[in-house]
Design brief:
single chain, alpha/beta, 2 domains, 10 helices
Length: 297
Amino acid sequence: MRDILIIKTGAAGDVVRTTTLLSALDGAITWIIDPKNAPLLPENIPSLQIIGKAEVGNGDFFNRSFNLVLSLEEDRECAAIASKVQKTKLTGVFLEGDELRYTDDAAGWFDMSLVSRRGREEANRLKIENEYSFQHWLFKMVGKPFSGEPYLIYRNPAIRKNSNLIGIETRSGGTWPNKKWWGYNELVKRLRNDGFDIKIFTQKNNIRDYLDEIAACSCIISADSLPMHVALAYKIPAIAIFNCTPPNEIYDYGYLTKVVSPVLKENLYDRQLNPQVVNSIDVSVVYNAVKESCVFK
């Protein structure tokens, strides 16, 4: 049996979409992850071993040898692990001296990334022009075609869906401030007037409590963020607002409606809050998307 190492620690949404590999790779999989994101991973795969990033230096980890190391973090510490561990094949990001590099078989994805050897301007151009999903590029790294393999994450079997409950995530984190959207309050008013119960998600100490709240909803509305990915994993219809991140790389699995800002291209990955971007989508656009694609069917 092949021994495979996946290095993907965060962000949470990126961890979720990487779980498509769990049903595609043949062998025993060891996954290095940020401990706060470890509860996202499923419990029912005997061949999956989960290791917190801080635990790597303990025990005999570096005495192990892997047939494949899939290094997916644009992070110096993770790249150093990928470079140091014993392996037959490395795909993805590694450390060369003090510089982050990536292998040629991972160039389709990382040429569009922050560590692109083509430079930031060309990377962004490639992102805008890219027509393929993250999963397409991920599977290409391991020499397989992507055929709609699902996300595989933890799910509490005791949670039952409430057909009248819409979950809304108004937060967007600090990395991409333009993921914010101005219209959530007005949208909530309209949906409540239609008779729907609304769950506004809040911070949880345990991410599985957050997953349980999402699992109880019949529709999810958010930015391009974790709840969107969880909804796709749980086959819950979702509306996602794309203000500053590329929609084409998100595979919709037949459950996702993408609402795209008309000024996205000019503000792709802009880290400065721009009111024009945040205010660029009218409430009626999102409300009509919910009516057409989510719980009004």
